[in-house]
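Thread: "does anyone have the structure for this chain?"

Original post by V.I.:
We have the sequence but no experimental structure in hand. Need at least a predicted one for the grant figures.
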Amino acid sequence: MLAALIVLAVFLFGGLCFTYLFFDDERLLWRLAAGNIVSCAISGVAGFVITLFFGLDPTTAALSILTALLPAAILLKPDVRTKLARDWQRARSNLQHGNKRIGGLIFYTFFFVLFCLFFSQAIYQTPDGIFTGGSQNLGDLPFHLGAIFSFTDGANFPPLNPSFAGVKFAYPFVADLLTALTIKLGGSVRGAMVVEDITWAFSLLILLERFTVRVTLSKLAGRIAPFLLFFSGGLGFLFFARDFWQQQKGFFDFLSALPSDYTITNLFRWGNSMVVLFITQRSLLLGMPLAIMAIDRLWATFSGQDGEEGRPQFVPPFVLGTLVGTLPLVHLHSLLVVFIVAAVCLLLYMRRWKEWFTFAVGVSIVAVPILAWLTTGEASDASKFIGWNFGWDKGDKNFFYFWLLNTGLVIPLIVAGVYLAWTKGSKEEHKHLRRAALFYIPFALIFVIANIVKLAPWEWDNIKILIYWFAGSIPFIAFAIVWTWEKRSVWLKATAALVFLSLIASGALDVYRTASGQNVVKVFDADGVKIADAIKQKTAPKALILNAPTYNSAVVLSGRQSLMRYTGHLSSHGIDFEGRERDVKAIYLGGGVADILLKKYGIDYVLVSPPERNDLKANDEYFGKFPLVAASGQYRLYKVK
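Reply from O.Q.:
Generated one for you, tokens below.
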């Protein structure tokens, strides 16, 4: 944990300095939040380049982390030091007058404590094995651990897919590489992951709040926005009420042992952002605040808040573009979203085309080489990522009923918010809010695209861009709620409060279920952890191991390459695995065919454990002819090469 906190301190300081390059008149908290994400992007990409040539060890890890301090050179400028001193004094003054800022202090403290409780459940270890408290994290946690340990223990540079040996690792892996860098500096995997997840989520909160205030000109809307994102959900709270009335426990007894999630089931597909996205998809958790920061800057240009009447600005959009250009390694779907928003802004506001073009140049300089590297020699079939698919993941349900069930009053409130922005507001606000209504166009377009076209082999993965439709809608949802709340009528205030509660009730239940530790999901058993340690000690870092194609093979924890792992992950990445899967089954049956296939793939070791015996009918007698390298419980590792 100490190493993770030291790395965080480096990121916060370096990123804070970076914000003074082109972000004016921002409070210190925003600078720290944005700076943390900027530093992660800089160090992540720098770490990729450095380790690509020199591998990963404490020296290269430290060098990668320290690249985040390069922007500190700006402190050589007296005016920047003056601005930093001013912002620091302002922050101290706010703390010293806490009685006037008690609302903000409670707000930020609430979310910080929530994130600590929630993300501490992402991974934990007991004598019985490795567990997760995330109900949807059973498959994703091993995937990320496999990537992390392939960097720290598998010498996986240049990165190859640890789940499908021999092909390039085309997944955006910067989040996991950052964790690996911290581990190499003495941190634990749990400490690094939890600290990163908490700080990324808190940065997202700050950036979303500020973006909402800029768009709506309402501080209250800004405070509402994080609740809408982090407690998102549909009408599942109605099913919670049904379940409560159908049993005999008291309310708090029932709440302490909830029978299920209420935002993600066969009926509900939208889920809660914390439960189905942020705890499971670490790349999105890092990529989303970076994308929101970029969209915020695009809005500033679109609305004229960045000084429209002065000379065109070229350095800020170019630097912002280079940051956005890191997204292919951070979270590729976020790059697509920023591209859509920027393209629509350009079409709507051609007057500032020079700045849009400068931004695009900055993006291209960084993103194009990364995309070229990612797409050369990788195994994904691009044709599987695009296809017609109406209604996202609605199945056979009515389109309108599906979205009402999954998001509640979200869509009616978006319509109301955009309408109010277009028609209401004082004379001073009118032009700004009208432009805000126009700025919603790209987010509406994202919703339409995601409901017509499948952008991933598994249609549910469209949620990776649908979440941006929701994030872009949040300012307008919050604006509609605030507009209603600020009316004098008690009934309208009550309506606003009830509407707000209906939007967060289902998500709050699921977040509470995870944060309170009600989910106890075993990912790796104790013998699996022990055999993984033995594999690290007794095999070469680049050894190729055969195991059953499951999500939680013990090989994951060793950092070694697997011939093949979980087919669900492979199919969602568009990898054609069927032929290799047949060969894996044939090898475990033993015999002459197995001898041929072991040589064909150059397999070094074979793991025989309960999954191989139960699912693949592994022939223990056949593998018994090979030297036994390690054993623990029902786990056996054989050297076959």
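V.I.: this helps a lot. The radius of gyration is 25 Å.
O.Q.: and The CA atoms of residues 422 and 431 lie 9 Å apart.
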